[in-house]
Amino acid sequence: MAIIEFLDSTLSGDLAPLDVEADAIIRAYLKRNPDTAYRLTMRAMTEAAAVAPPAAPVQRVNKSWLSAIFERRLPAVS
Question: How high is the pLDDT of residue 28?
Answer without folding.
Answer: 96
